Amino acid sequence: MIYIKLHDTDNGSIIAMCDQSLIGKTLSEDDLFIDLKSYASFYKGELVSPTKAKEIIDSKRIYSANIVGRESVDVAVEMGIVHESAILSVEGVPYAHAYVVEERS
User: Fold this and answer.
1) Count: domains in the chain
2) Would the pTM of this model clear 0.85, i.e. be above it?
3) CA separation for the pair 53, 50 (Å, rounded)
4) I need a labelling partner for 51 at 20 to 30 A (CA). Which of 6, 34, 45, 75 fits?
5) Percent helix, strand and coil across the chain, each rounded to 5?
6) pLDDT, tens only, 53-93
7) What region does 88 belong to: left with phi over 0, alpha with psi -120 to 50, or beta?
8) In a domain, 46, yes or no
């Protein structure tokens, strides 16, 4: 199961997704640190299956994404939010960030 939370902005939605099993943990490796305990509220929105997550994502204009965990990252790749080459890992846990950059006139 995946926690998914949409943070709406004027430019589109910021999507936060995290595997349920990771909420409440802190991951660190070398200089990398992901705090899913202190920032749980950023990710903890609706608890959904990967199929439901895809439905939610499909209906939104994604402006940026913060994604942590195997299930969540797999959904993001399938939906074209992140490319496989953009996936990093900390303590063996995959994560990815994605941003839409638009040229302004």
Assistant:
1) 1
2) yes
3) 5
4) 34
5) 25, 40, 30
6) 999 887 678 889 999 999 999 999 999 999 999 999 999 99
7) beta
8) yes
Q: Is residue 21 part of a domain?
A: yes
CB 87 within 8 A of CB 96: yes
Six token digits for residue 101: 């950059």
Tell me, rounded to whole angstroms, the distance of Cα 27 from its chain centroid.
Answer: 15
DSSP 8-state secondary structure symbol assigned to residue 45: S
Q: One-letter amino acid identity for 93?
A: V
* Two tokens, residue 54: 């895809």
pLDDT at 105: 64
Residue 76: give its domain's CATH number.
3.30.1860.10
pLDDT tens-digit profile of 3-53?
999 999 888 889 999 999 999 999 999 999 999 999 999 999 999 999 999
pLDDT of the residue at 101: 74
Residue 105: inside a domain: no
